[in-house]
Design brief:
Number of helices: 5
Largest sheet: 5 strands, mixed
Strand order of the largest sheet: 1-2-3-4-5
Oligomer: single chain
CATH topology: Rossmann fold
Shape: globular
Radius of gyration: 15 Å
Number of domains: 1
Length: 149
């Protein structure tokens, strides 16, 4: 398992540097593109999720799952912090998403299967919405919770 946790501006170059060794590997991408104003949703020129772009760049031999985009980096760095939110996991293959869901559980979070990799465009966009909520409410911990499941 390889985890990609870089700013979107570094995604293409980072993936280019590891593409030759990614065949058969699972990439879990945490990348969530934000615009110039991080608290405003900014769609990529391609209209796709950064996760989909990663899959296209790496090719079919690599497997890509999107997860953890809506968890604040400062919380992920604090091993003692109890996460009070869900992690939305997007990908094409159930077994690959299962790996990400198990990582969520190991980190004390509930992972939720959010469907196809194409759905990651919405999950990535929610990062800017959560940043806006944090700014407006003077908080640092807005998160997503899926109910009724």
């Amino acid at each position: 398992v390889v985890v990609l946790s870089v700013p979107y501006s570094a995604q293409h170059g980072t993936l280019a540097s590891v593409k030759d060794v990614m065949d058969g590997k699972l990439l879990i991408t945490v990348v969530a593109p934000t615009g110039e104003k991080k608290n405003r949703v900014s769609l990529l020129p391609s209209g796709k999720a950064a996760a989909e772009e990663a899959q296209e760049q790496l090719g079919e031999a690599a497997r890509v799952v999107a997860a953890f985009q809506n968890i604040g980096a400062h919380h992920l760095l604090d091993l003692d912090h109890q996460m009070d939110c869900d992690v939305l996991v997007c990908g094409e293959k159930g077994d690959d998403k299962k790996v990400a869901l198990e990582l969520c559980e190991a980190a004390g979070m509930r992972g939720v299967n959010a469907g196809a990799l194409a759905n990651a465009v919405v999950v990535e966009g929610m990062t800017s919405v959560l940043i806006a909520i944090n700014i407006l409410s003077k908080s640092k911990s807005a998160g997503i919770r899926i109910t009724g499941i």
